[in-house]
Amino acid sequence: MPSTHLRRERPLDGVTSITVKIGLLVVLSIVAAVVLMQVGSRAGVPGWITLPVALAGALGVSRWLARGMTSPLREMTRAAGQMAAGDYSARVPATSADEVGRLGHAFNTMAADLAAADQERRQLVATVSHELRTPLAAQRALLENLVDGVVTPDDTALQTALAQSERLSGLVSDLLDVSRIDGGAAPLHLAPVRVAELLGAAAAEATVGGRDVRVETRVEPTDLVVDADSARLAQVVANLLDNAIRHSPAGGTVTVHAAAADDRWFLEVGDEGPGIPAEQAQRVFERFGVGEDGGGGTGLGLAISRWVCQLHGGTIAALPPPGDATGARVRAVLPRHPSARDVQPAAPIQHRTPTQHGTPEENPVTATHPTPSSTTAATDAPPLPAATTDALFGDFWPERESLRTATGQLAGSVAVGALAALVLPYRNIGLGVLLVLLLAGGLVLASSVYRRRRWTVVSAALCVGLASLVVLRAAEWLAVLAVLVAGVLVATALTDARKVLSMLAAGATWVGSGIRGLPLLGRTLTAAGRQERLWPVLRTTALSLVALVIFGGLFASGDPVLGSWVSAVLPDITIADSLVFRGFVWFLVGGVVLAACYLALNPPRVEKVALRGARPVSRPWEWAVPAGVVLAVFVAFLVAQASAMWGGHDYVLNTTGMRYADYVHQGFAQLTAATALTLVTIALVVRKAPRSDPGDRRLLRWILGALCLLTLLVVVSALSRMAVYQQAYGFTVLRVLVDAFEVWLGILVLLVMVAGVRMSGWWLPRAALASGAALLLVIGLANPEARVAQANIDRFHEVGKLDVAYLASLGADATPVIEAGLPADLAECVVAGQYASSLEDDWLGWNLGRARAAQVSGYGTDNSRGLACEPQIGE
């Protein structure tokens, strides 16, 4: 099962180069985006739906491939963390054939070596403690008896003390040898060595101390001479004899046999003890590889002996006893005259992993491959760990530890997307859109961690009002604008944004949730995948639908014959194009809702997005003077405005050479920009104002207060200018919206004045957003297209001027007003020129504006008649 899972998650494991993998990732991502764009285009899906779906598809393919490429690195990071905490059992599945896979193999080998080193360290402490305790205890007891006079300091007592000291010295010598071996500081000094003399001296030394074991030596030929390091070779013989004597029974015999064989010679030591089991034959030569018979010893002697043999260019091994004999046989085979090549430094003493019970050849997997438990743990890891996303988002957007899965949000988003796919395509904006918006908003609100905050409640109420405009008004531009403003409200409510920059960041994090939420999505899908009955059915159904949508859409729209067959089976609809369209809508709406749910469950710290703390000016006039200059300019402008108003048309014409209507239109954009810049200026002055002297702050407050009052007069002047211009040249929806924007700027100025009076403005950004949303809601409820049509009709009755072409361009909201306000023939001409959707409204597509327009005779029936009308009347 783990191997199948790894093959599924790492499709590029067989590629042997990481560079080629990256190239394939880029190419396949581009191919996925192009295919989705082509499918959507052929199915008639609008570009604003196709583009995000194609980008998401490319991102999904790249993430699927990149996940397999980078998962070993993530697992190594996690395993390294465990190793840093002292757990050396972690392994990584090194299944890739590229550089990352080779790194994984090396990592597993390193982990095994570290585990062995840690085990040896622990065993060294235990073994040395045990070995030191016995001679130290005996020596301490003897010295205490000598001090207390219990024992006379004769030769026997001193000999006993000397024996204990020699035992301690031997243990320390072994440890020093191991240290020299590991450090590579144990060179050989080759010289002729008489083997018989070496063995005789070693046997005599080994039997000292009253050991009831007899040592027999035999050398063939008796005058055998070899080239070796005499000290190291004596160490080998002493270690082999010590090991054999310790495991021999009382009265037993240890045989030492040395013989020459061509250019090599061998040294064999045998005893009559319990012997060495076959499965322990290699382990006894490892560090602390003591037998299981309780013979004692540090477990270093045989390991040092093997290293010395290797250093001479030879080998050492444990052999089974001949025939029915018992005991252990250890044979070392060495060159008689080692060459320079033979005496190259050998590998360090073999490390033994804690779980290894055989030779390296018998356990090839242990050092380079993970155990089954570690593999399972690695594959159950989340697809995009927090470490990866933290590197991308940092402390700005950490994930809550309690957030493990979001099954309800995932299921709800899929359901909302499915509902949108069923009710939105091939229908006008109406009741179905409202239903989708309300269900999506309810799901997101229920998921929000800030759902009980006052701002969330206010935002939810405004969003419901704005969403209702899709049913009350037929103007598509109004519906789009209302949904966008509602989206801003939702983003600020979900993130609890309070400042201007935080609110801007909140809108961006909705898009970023598509990436930040991938780990949670992966965990949720993994949890759902454990449902043995439900998940396979859903997965099979989804894959079948995707295959049907993609390939059915391509072939049915690209082959007329196949398309005719599909039409014959389902004559009422083009099933392929419909499925493609609905599939794209499902993915887009469900993805947007799911991203909002993640934003609700795990909001980022948007308050971190802020300007650096400003350094207040030390001299108040540094900002008071510029603010005063702006104030003077405002005064001069208002004086000019008063002169134009009092002088009237003749004064303006004589002074500027322009008609009054042209004069007021020319300066409207500048006044709007001046109003907005005034708010920016006030914000800068407040930010840099001195905070030490109350008198300085009071001066700036008076200047800014006067500037706000003059700005309100500028707003009134701008609105009056637009009113005069519209009365002269006609009313349009765009001019109404510009008026509304200027009104909103005036509201902001009033809010700034209130903040200045209260000496507190933390609420100002939210109040500005709420006032803008409320103003848009008021505009929508006031039916702007109908009011513009009515204003133009009233102007027509007053001055006889009418822009018929513009009236015909207005939507269904204006139709009843046009029918009621204009003469019958002119109204019929205008109404017939209006665009009417070819889609018939059912109850899901019902809209109040279109329902009223449909009751008017001739609405949208003959566009050619509208073109035959005079575009301008009375001009």
From TrEMBL:
Residues 366-384 have a biased composition (Low complexity). It holds the Pfam family HATPase_c. InterPro entries: 2C_sensor_his_kinase, DUF4153, HAMP_dom, HATPase_C_sf, HATPase_dom, His_kinase_dom, HisK_dim/P_dom, HisK_dim/P_sf. Residues 127-338 form the Histidine kinase domain. GO terms for cellular component: plasma membrane. Gene3D superfamilies: 1.10.287.130, 6.10.340.10, Histidine kinase-like ATPase, C-terminal domain. The chain crosses the membrane at residues 20-39, 45-66, 429-449, 455-472, 477-494, 500-522, 534-556, 579-601, 621-647, 667-687, 699-720, 732-756, 763-782. Residues 338-384 are annotated as: Disordered. Its cofactor is Mn(2+); Mg(2+). The keyword 4Fe-4S does not apply. It is found in: Cell membrane. Residues 67-119 form the HAMP domain. It catalyses: ATP + protein L-histidine = ADP + protein N-phospho-L-histidine. Keywords: ATP-binding, Cell membrane, Hydrolase, Kinase, Magnesium, Manganese, Membrane, Nucleotide-binding, Phosphoprotein, Protein phosphatase, Stress response, Transferase, Transmembrane, Transmembrane helix, Two-component regulatory system, Virulence. It is a multi-pass membrane protein. It comes from the Bacteria. Its EC number is 2.7.13.3. The keyword Nucleotide-binding applies. GO terms for molecular function: ATP binding; phosphoprotein phosphatase activity; phosphorelay sensor kinase activity. This is Signal transduction histidine-protein kinase/phosphatase MprB. The lineage of its organism: Bacteria, Bacillati, Actinomycetota, Actinomycetes, Micrococcales.
